Amino acid sequence: MTDMSFLTTLITDSTAKIVLFVLDGLGGLPDPTSGLTELETANTPNMDNLARDGICGLLDTVGIGVTPGSGPGHLALFGYDPIRFEVGRGVFSALGVGMELGPEDVAARVNFCTIENGIITDRRAGRISTDENARLCAKIGKVIVEGVEIEIVPEKEHRAALVLHGTGLSDEVSDTDPQRIGEAPLECDATSVGGEEAERTARIVNQYISRVVDIISDEHPANMIVTRGFSKYPNLPKMTEIYSLKPAGIATYPMYKAAAKLVGMDLIETGPTLADEIAALKTVWNTYDFFFLHYKPTDSRGEDGDFSGKVKAIEEADAQIPALMGLRPDVLAITGDHSTPALLKMHSWHPSPLLFHSKWERRDSVEAFGETACVGGGLGRFRAVDLMALMLANAMKLEKFGA
Amino acid sequence: MTDMSFLTTLITDSTAKIVLFVLDGLGGLPDPTSGLTELETANTPNMDNLARDGICGLLDTVGIGVTPGSGPGHLALFGYDPIRFEVGRGVFSALGVGMELGPEDVAARVNFCTIENGIITDRRAGRISTDENARLCAKIGKVIVEGVEIEIVPEKEHRAALVLHGTGLSDEVSDTDPQRIGEAPLECDATSVGGEEAERTARIVNQYISRVVDIISDEHPANMIVTRGFSKYPNLPKMTEIYSLKPAGIATYPMYKAAAKLVGMDLIETGPTLADEIAALKTVWNTYDFFFLHYKPTDSRGEDGDFSGKVKAIEEADAQIPALMGLRPDVLAITGDHSTPALLKMHSWHPSPLLFHSKWERRDSVEAFGETACVGGGLGRFRAVDLMALMLANAMKLEKFGA
After folding, report:
1. One domain, residues A146 and A184
2. Which of A210, A231, A252 represents a domain boundary (last residue)?
3. I need a labelling partner for B160 at 20 to 30 A (CA). Which of A225, B50, B213, B302 fits?
4. Which domain holds residue A148?
């Protein structure tokens, strides 16, 4: 992996236009009958043409065997090592459900759980439904402790996001989630480097949890919450500073808008469909030089376990490729931020297929875009965090290193 | 490479069973006539079936061009970066020949060498035979210096292992092996951080070598010893702590039992054959969730330069695959800890072929298990230290990283 600050020393001017088209959760697993993945099953004449004309490969988002969340997945594609630039779990949870996060607010990930005689007996409260979760969050409502307004918003199943809106708060506080059953939830404590603001924040969290217990202790199975990943909005270096790019982000879901904003992209207004997104991209084509285009349905259908729905979502994306190529991007990368096989109904560790198109790349023997074909692709298998360097190189944005 | 402590943060519960089947020194080089390696020559219908149904790749144990010893080779397969977790050469020498090593004992690697007028003229004493080595070690016998009992045990050819059994010893002492001819053996010295215990240990080592000289100075060509890699039994993090696994090790040679023990595996009693080992594995199948199964003959025949013997050893291993698969492991990895090409008669730097079988992996086009086929395998080429993450992922033992 090439260090980001090293890349920065090589940056030069270019007028080339780069498009990073993320089909969320693109990679899959083969249907046991056909032996073909969702992407391999889909009829994708436009991407296949690009694959024939371009060069393919496989991307490891974080590392071999590691299943990336959407946050780390996108940071990696933007060239930010997701382990080094770890954004708190709480922040991504909150941003992912569209909560506002002020610079002094503190966010956390919440799990509803089951407690009996003070001991956690199920860390996921039997994986309650998202509807049940929403009902519980509504029942808890907004709580104010010591002048700090605390908001809880449902994610999926037993997971929720919590934000403490206020001033003088610290994220240097410990998890209350012991992360195993048979133990009592922990008290929230200031960490050793926390200081007075952390002591106050921990006190507020503990009071909040007492109040929540009063409200849901007679519920079943979700009669308790545990919290982890207390974090504030992170101050990441911006793509303009690092790469001297003028980046635009086009996405329809809060999580991906949030990820784009974290690295300093301008968010472009768009309608809900991919056609809308490409139309939006078109309107700002002359204003920016880097375009992050995000497409959600591939991941959603994968998470639903809907193999044929994911196939259809891929085909719908493929149908928009001519509109995108009509803009004649100098560099185009099509990939996923992680895999979401319909067979697993969740994000997975499998590398993402990558289709790379630029007039300054070698060709390979890949004839159609698919996971198995990408194994033999000319780019091989590499870490997603290096994709940005490859895009910049093809945009002639990187000077020679050394004389 | 994903850091081990990072993986630990992702560990969750799973009931899946993982088997790591190490065919020691599996990888080879092609026979010049047939163009096929030992593995490619062998008739391995069972492994070929698994390769067709599974996914293949190539593993670099330490790094490209680096020939691993058995110790680092196994540490890497267990997910321990063998450069970071360097276990002293002395420790592996001693454990490799089955010597007991107490927590305060100090071990070293010994080379018999030839000395003339105080100068080393042959660092390997003409590679004396292992029998001659054994005779010399017996002649030296147990020596007691300042109450410390010092034991020497033959390894192969000119190499032996030395253990100082006692208390108040330190491994912060320097090598006496100058590692070149034309120089005198060095005095053993305390290192700069060694302190009094190291001073005493160095004094004991020097006295010991004087005594050995008295005993073997009239021998030829092995009339002197040099020592290096003084080290104590290392305190490695245990697999249970890191991966939350309950690991069992099944091996017949001291070195591999030692490697398994170092990372906290329970050693399972077994007879000498692979069939015995698999029978032993079967008896504890319900008690453990990670099984390290070690098979030695592939390496032994490679070291002998016995190409067809190694082919036969591979075929004998293949014949036991049905018994192993009868247990229905959720995750199975078959690979080597390094290559041992019969043509080289030694360990080599060539990557190890990897056969990976799990219902949660993609398929690839590999039709038979072999080095050349693995080049095109769906897993590509990666570092052995990352294999553990891939096994854990397939066992559903790793949570998603980030939201």
Report:
1. yes
2. A231
3. B302
4. 91-231
ipTM here:
0.86
Interface probe for B, chosen from A38, A66, A92 (most Cβ of B below 10 Å), is: A66
Q: Under 8 Å CB-to-CB from A118, ≥6 apart: which residues?
A: A184
Same structural domain for residues A107 and A200? yes
* Subunit contact A349:B380, Cβ cutoff 8 A: no
Distance from CA of B34 to the nearest CA of A (A): 26
CB contact under 8 A, A350 and B361: yes
Q: Cα(B387)–Cα(B82) distance, rounded to whole angstroms? A: 13
Encode pLDDT of B316-372 as tens digits: 999 999 999 999 999 999 999 999 999 999 999 999 999 999 999 999 999 999 999
Q: What is the CA radius of gyration of chain B?
A: 22
Q: Which of B9, B362, B394 to mutate to test the interface with A (most CBs of A within 10 A)?
A: B362
Tell me if A65 and B1 make a contact (CB, 8 A cut-off). no
Distance from CA of A247 to the nearest CA of B (A): 24
Nearest CA in chain B to A94: B403
Enter the pTM of the model: 0.88
* Terminal Cα-to-Cα distance of chain A (whole angstroms): 22
Which chain A residues touch B373 with a CB distance below 8 Å?
A: none
Classify the C-alpha dihedral B32-B335-B251-B152 as positive or negative: positive
d(CA A238, CA A265): 8
Helix (H) or strand (E) holding A203: helix A195-216
Residue A106 bridge partners (DSSP): A164
Give dist(CA B234, CA B242) in Å, integer: 16
What's phi and psi for A116, nearest 5 deg? -135, 125
* Average confidence (pLDDT) over A331-338: 98
A344 and B360 within 8 Å at the Cβ level: the answer is yes
Whether B401 sits inside 8 A of A66 (CB atoms) is yes
